[in-house]
Amino acid sequence: VAGCKVAHIKTIPTVDAGELSFFEANNDIPFDIKRIYYISKVPEGVRRGFHAHKELKQLLFCPYGRIQLILENELGREEIELSDPSIAVMIDRPTWREMLWLQKDSVLCVAASDYYKVEDYIRNYDDFKKYLEEIR
Ligand code: T46
């Protein structure tokens, strides 16, 4: 997905009692997790995101509901729907992202490689395109 990897999260089913998914820093994902955040209570049809990160690496997954990710970087622009708790997307290069809530109350969870740093965000699309040129 535009140079971002779709990853399978290890998932253990229990007969008639659902499933349990897990991942471990460094063992299952290639960074130390310094921060976890999640986005909830979003109405259907709402879009969030509209930014890129310079250094931050993140694993995004949707434990409940249906969320479309629109990702763009130097390798192209692609869309992926997160609707299975055992599927994640690893964003490990500067990538413009938009998230569209396809279903009310869907939850987006993110494991991030660093603390919240406002200076790591590029929130203007033209600045993002310029940044991609600069780092080429
Ligand atoms: C991303 C996508 C997938 C904090 O204070 N600490 C935090 O750790 C985060 C993530 C956000 N914030 C504050 C910054 C804003 O005042 O929470 C507010 C909402 O954040 P934002 O508008 O950036 O939310 P999204 O949904 O557009 O983007 C978020 C993440 O910020 C971003 O890193 O990749 O989810």
Automatic annotation (TrEMBL):
Coiled coil: none annotated. This is GNAT family N-acetyltransferase.
